[in-house]
Design brief:
The protein is mainly α. Helices cover about 50% and strands about 5% of the residues. Helix 10 packs across helix 15.
């Protein structure tokens, strides 16, 4: 079955008008009537879209996504979210490119309370759906009015803000060692070691390319000539470059950073690279079966196996995910090693605070940290996992 075939039959007379009611207050109805406005302006176009047999989502993919240098995993997420929206709208009895505000609000409720997704996941889905919708608004071939955007309208009325988070578990280093040592597959071990050692996010980990890693290992370098060839790693050995968001799609930090690779991180990477499938892809890590770029959810799956159920969610603590590595990393360097705040911020990829925005002294805007300031301190004080 094609994506288009997953859409609803074009029987708009039987559409679920309750969705319109759910997103429409009595006051808004009265205003619409007074000004001769239509609260559900896309409804009349649903039949025409069905008759054309052309999917506007596919048009967006072809005209917009394929013209950009996006990773295959990013494009696949668009496809996944679009498919989920098509299926949802089919259940609502409405063509997916013709929603009203009520449809979007019902979708949000469905995602949060029936599917159990976190607010950030729902925000990401709405963001990608809205991007397609905004493209339709700009394309003169499509009827979507400039003054009506159901995704933005619904998003304004539903609270998807970050919820107050519980603190992470306080896992002793001895327990971390035992759990890391228990991981049998070398790639999975790297999935745990590198977030702990380098404070990497799961998305940053899966985004590492061979050019981003410099290793002083003749055999590995001979097999992977592109290893460590990123310009930022020139004259750097046993180091890794984490590109900023503007340079690498999917990374979150605004600032790129170079981090040292200690003996244990280096050993884990070497063991993986020795057995890594050689298929010409630039990514350091690959999926076990398809040998393609992994999704960051796959990193979390490994962490869940290693740390749960012992470190599942409790009344006091959040469940351990790969993001625990970033918390442990930050706490270790700032609290346990009393590293200067600016040094820790550099290693995390955090943007320097601006005096004008937070009341700090003006001199703070002129304080900078560089790799050379971090390397020796890191190598001398990094914790050991006894690998």
């Amino acid at each position: 079955m094609t994506r288009h075939e997953a859409n609803t039959d074009a029987n708009t007379d039987m559409e679920m008008d309750a969705n319109t009611e759910a997103g429409t207050s009595q006051a808004r109805k009265q205003l619409a009537a007074a000004f001769g406005r239509d609260i559900d302006p896309l409804k009349p176009y649903a039949v025409t879209f069905e008759e054309t047999d052309i999917d506007p989502f596919d048009v967006f993919v072809e005209e917009v996504l394929e013209s950009k240098n996006l990773s295959s995993s990013t494009v696949e997420r668009y496809h996944t979210y679009f498919d989920e929206w098509r299926m949802f709208m089919a259940e609502q009895g409405r063509y997916p490119a013709c929603p009203n505000e009520g449809h979007v609000r019902t979708f949000i409720h469905h995602e949060l309370h029936e599917q159990g997704h976190k607010p950030r996941t729902v925000r990401e889905k709405l963001q990608k759906l809205n991007r397609a919708y905004e493209y339709w608004q700009t394309d003169s071939a499509l009827p979507h009015p400039q003054e009506f955007n159901p995704f933005k309208l619904a998003r304004e009325k539903v609270d998807l803000s970050r919820q107050t988070k519980k603190p992470p578990h306080n896992i002793p280093l001895t327990d971390l060692r035992e759990r890391v040592q228990s991981i049998g597959h070398v790639r999975d071990r790297a999935y745990v070691v590198l977030p702990l050692k380098l404070g990497l996010r799961a998305s940053e980990l899966t985004n590492i390319q061979l050019q981003d890693v410099s290793l002083a290992h003749p055999d590995i370098r001979a097999h992977y000539p592109e290893l460590g060839m990123h310009p930022r790693l020139e004259d750097r050995e046993n180091a890794i470059y984490v590109p900023p968001s503007g340079e690498r799609e999917g990374n979150k930090s605004e600032l790129g950073r170079i981090l040292p690779l200690d003996d244990e991180s280096r050993r884990v990477l070497v063991k993986w690279l020795l057995i890594r499938p050689d298929n010409g892809l630039p990514w350091v890590f690959l999926t076990k079966q398809a040998h393609t770029k992994p999704e960051h959810d796959g990193v979390n799956d490994v962490w869940k196996v290693v740390f749960r159920p012992e470190y599942d969610e409790t009344d006091e603590h959040r469940a351990v995910t790969s993001h625990f590595g970033r918390h442990f990393f930050s706490t270790y360097w700032r609290v346990k090693q009393d590293a200067p705040r600016e040094v820790v911020k550099y290693m995390r990829g955090d943007k320097t605070d601006r005096a004008a925005s937070n009341g700090r002294e003006a001199i703070d805007e002129y304080l900078h940290t560089f790799y050379d300031d971090v390397e020796q301190f890191y190598r001398e004080n990094v914790f050991k996992l006894d690998l």
